[in-house]
Amino acid sequence: MKHIFIINPAAGKGDKAEKLKREIKKHFEAEQYYIEMTTKKSEATLISKRYAKTGVEMIFYACGGDGTVNEVVNGIYKYRNASLAIIPIGTGNDFVKSLPHPIQDLQNIQKYINPEYMTCDLLSVDNYVGINNISVGFDVAVSMNASRFKKIPFANEIVPYTMSLVYSMAQSLSDTYRVKFNDIDIKEDFTFIVVCNGGFYGGGYKPYPAANIRDNIIDLVFIQGVTRRNLLKLSKHYEKGTHLQFKDLVTIHKCKEVTIMHEEPIYLSVDGEIIKVIDPTIKILENGMRLVIPSRK
């Protein structure tokens, strides 16, 4: 078994990456391990794919935030010899909130010496995958604008996304989409649409708190076209996951795949990473990833 640690040195704040390297060398000295430091966007995908395609049994440790996790997942999901562990040292660390372990345990390198395994679903769109969720609409504008606020020294966890929410409200809040899923075909104004595998995103917002990464089902969240006044009210509940009570604004559906159509190309946020597509069809990949989680012993 090989252990491949892919570390984003820019994740989080401070010297987390250097501390992590010292912990790896301390606890994995008797194992066959490799440490790879990323230097640019998408590099984690290239590194992980290069290792995975050798066919050797490996555990890939995505050390960073949700962006690093997404890149590693896209590098290894086609390879049955590859498993994924997540060491959350990023800013939001949203996907791991759907795992049965507290973040402190996931950050404890020693607990991965004799780990446990579980599978989880993935979301597929245009030869690209996500492990957490995919969104379209106003949500994507918030995600795209949040990056500029992450550079502010005091901004951590949900702060950049809240600041981006306020900034983005100066723009159009809704757009018209045609959406097809199950036997339903609708065309309406939506503020945003979230295709959920996990239940958290955006630094802690809860589009569908009951989402289960192992149930082989997409949880589809529609936020109808809302006014700025309603959006401000809704955002507070969205952070707590209590927005589902507003049934005139929020609807939930379950499906295996969904197609979203628009007159122009669509920007999707896939685990926070932005891609541009035309009329995308999003599908659930059942048990698409084998996860490595810390030992409970």
Features:
alpha+beta; globular; 297 residues; single chain; 15-stranded mixed β-sheet; Rossmann fold; 2 domains; 15 strands; Tumour Suppressor Smad4
What does this structure look like?
The chain has 297 residues and is α+β, with helices and mostly antiparallel strands. It has two domains: 126 residues, Probable inorganic polyphosphate/atp-NAD kinase, domain 1 (Rossmann fold), CATH 3.40.50.10330; 155 residues, Tumour Suppressor Smad4, CATH 2.60.200. Helix content is 24%, strand content 35%. It is built from seven helices and 15 strands. The chain has a 15-stranded mixed beta sheet that branches. A hairpin with a 2-residue loop joins strand 8 and strand 9. The chain starts with a strand and ends with a strand.
Secondary-structure blueprint of this entry?
Blueprint: E1 2-7, H1 16-27, E2 32-37, H2 43-52, E3 58-64, H3 66-76, E4 82-88, H4 103-106, E5 116-125, E6 128-130, E7 133-137, H5 138-149, H6 159-168, E8 175-181, E9 184-196, E10 218-224, H7 228-240, E11 250-255, E12 257-261, E13 266-270, E14 273-277, E15 281-293
Helix pairs in contact: 2-3, 5-6
Shape call: globular
Q: N-to-C terminal Cα separation, in Å?
A: 21 Å
CATH architecture of the largest domain: Sandwich
The biggest beta sheet is recorded as: 15 strands, mixed
Question: Which CATH C-level class of the largest domain is it?
Answer: Mainly Beta
Name the helix and strand elements from N-terminus to C-terminus, one letter apiece: EHEHEHEHEEEHHEEEHEEEEE
